[in-house]
Amino acid sequence: LGSLLRTTAAGALLSLGIELLQTGVPGQVVDVDSLLLNTAGVALAHLAVVPAGRARLRRGSERGRREDVPQEEPTQGRTPTIPRVGIAP
Q: What is the pLDDT of residues 24-41, one digit of tens each?
């Protein structure tokens, strides 16, 4: 949800910046409809692309992790212990 909100806000600000720059062109005015449609398009594109991309990245990283991790070595027996020495008289 955070990623969607950040992406949508960035798209809205970018669209607003472009609309404000277009007011410098004679005969152009700020069109709120295009601002809203651009923002909705950014949100829809994010919803369509990002979940699939994340799933693909997860599959790739899981596959890579399985190949990189070596198999456990067989046990070599019990850990040697140091025999206890009694206290000197």
A: 888 888 889 999 999 999
Distance, CA of 39 to CA of 75 (rounded, Å) = 60
CA angle (53 as vertex; 51, 57 as ends), nearest 5? 115
Q: Strand, coil or helix: what is 1?
A: coil
| pLDDT at residue 38, rounded to an integer | 94
List phi, psi (to 5°) of 29: -125, 165
> Tokens 């997860």 correspond to what residue?
58
For 22, half-sphere exposure in the C-beta direction (CA atoms, 13 angstrom radius) is: 14
Place of tokens 């404000």: 20
